[in-house]
Structures are given as C-alpha cells and as structure tokens.
Amino acid sequence: MTTLTAKDKQTVKAFWAKVSGKSEDIGAAAVARMLVVYPQTKTYFSHWQDQSPHSAAARKHGITVMMGVGDAVTKIDDLKEGLKELSELHAFTLRVDPGNFKILSHNILVVMAIMFPTDFTPDVHVSLDKFLAAVSLALAEKYR
Amino acid sequence: MVEWTDFERNTIQDIFSRIEYDVVGPAALARCLVVYPWTQRYFGGFGNLYNAAAIKGNPMVSKHGTTILNGLERAVKNMDDITNTYAELSVLHSEKLHVDPDNFKLLADCLTIVVAAQLGNEFTGEVQAAFQKFLAVVVSALGRQYR
Prior knowledge:
The complex is a heterodimer of chains A (144) and B (147). Chain A is globular, with a radius of gyration of 15 Å. Helices cover 68% and strands 0% of the residues of chain A. Chain A contains 7 helices and no strands. Chain A is mostly helical and 144 residues long. Chain B is an all-alpha fold. Helix content of chain B is 71%, strand content 0%. The two termini of chain B are 21 Å apart. The chains are: A mainly alpha (144), B mainly alpha (147). At the A-B interface, helix 2, helix 6 and helix 7 of A face helix 2, helix 3, helix 7 and helix 8 of B. Chain A: GO terms for molecular function: metal ion binding; oxygen carrier activity. Chain A: This is Hemoglobin subunit alpha-2. Chain A: It holds the Pfam family Globin. Chain A: InterPro entries: Globin, Globin-like_sf, Globin/Proto, Hemoglobin_a-typ, Hemoglobin_oxygen_transport. Chain A: Keywords: Acetylation, Heme, Iron, Metal-binding, Oxygen transport, Transport.
C-alpha cells in the first residue's frame, strides 16, 4: 500500500479542520448509509434491538467511528503505532472482516460529497481515500 | 436476468432525467483520472493530464465524459436487457481499447460520488443502493465479453 505524501497529510488535516465540526452527523450518515446500501454489514449489529439505519444505536456507532477517524488524523504520521489498540480491539474482540473497512470508507466519501460538495474536490477526494485506506490497513494490522 | 423493483426503476429513470450529462460525465471522468491516476493509461492521446486543474479543463476529457453518460443512457433505456445492449461495447473495451475491467468499478464509484454531490440529501441510502445496483449491472455487462 502507498504511504501518505506530505501533500496528502496537509490536505487531510486542512479538510478535517473544515468538516470536523460536523463529524457526528458525518459518522451517523455514513453508518446509516452503509446499513442500507450494504445490508450484509448488519450482521455485525445483531445485538442491537433496533437495527434500522437511523436508530439511536446506529447514530451512536457512527459518532464513535468518526471519533476514531478524527483521532487517526492526529496520528497521521504513524497510524500503525497510533491505532495499535484500536487494531487489537477489531482483531480480537470485534473481529470485523477487513473488507468492511473499505465499504465504510466508501460511504464516508459519499457523505462528504453530499455535505461538502464544493470542498470535496478531486484532490481532496484522492488524499482522503488514501488516508482512509491507510487507516483501514492500520486497523487490520493485528489481525494475523 | 436482473430483477428490478418499481422503486429501483423509477429511481434510475429519475436520476438520469435530472442530471446534466455534460456536467456529470466530465466531472466523473475527471475525478476518476485524479483519484485513480493509473486510469490515465487509457488516455495517452488526450494531451495534458498533468494535474487536477489540467484534467478538469481538458476538452477531450469533457467530451469523453459526456460520451460515457450517453452510453449509460442506453442501459437506462434497456434496463431489462443490459447484457445484450452492451455486448458490442464490451467487445470494444476488451478487443480494441484493452481496458482492465476492474477500472469500470473505479469510474462507477466516481459517478456515485458526483451524482451524490449533485442530488445532495435526495441521494438517500435507498437511492444510492439502487444507483449502485444499476452501475454494478452495467459494469458486469461491460466485462462480459472479455476472454
């Protein structure tokens, strides 16, 4: 996988500074979208009483996920080390198939396009896509 | 054969009646060339693709983006027989253009993002699911004749 260039990091940090105020809405929207567009992802949430995309549990989960993404932005210079504990959580406790990281990343990008159509330029898109791929890789680090 | 619900049919017809082909097409292709730069390998004759601004302003990219959307319209008008509708296009992309079919998915993802930006909150999860299903059928049909 590619490393993030200085330009990628700068672009991600600048874009995140613009959008982080809405991070809860972004997270909730991305998770809701994922549950609707990729219904197989609901299998990870069978413990929720209400599996509907706009349930309180789904919103809460979206917020949690986006807090993780925001945290990853601050650790952008060493994601592997910075996300070590989160990786252990996903590897040993949650055991989410890493293919799903790509699915959620895609939906985060779609939400960015909807909420920030002028700021989410192709240049921002490529850096954010690379960043989310790097985060996904760091999350999968401890799997095996 | 692909089964389409009424919602899916109506959604696809609605989206394509609302988007401007000469805005969405160029935007999606340009985005694909920026976000997945290896796709530029198929556009060696297009001139300056040096950076995002050059790609966005490149008239050949714009023209081709519009061509792609017009091509998609054929699938929109023949939703019950996309595989056969695209048989010749599939042969063209395989035998003449030599496009790796994995790239179709990359362009499809960029189209999703551009349409999402255009439609805003109307691009609900349900609409996205229908649109992505349509594009998946298109992508599959385009890859069908490869051998």
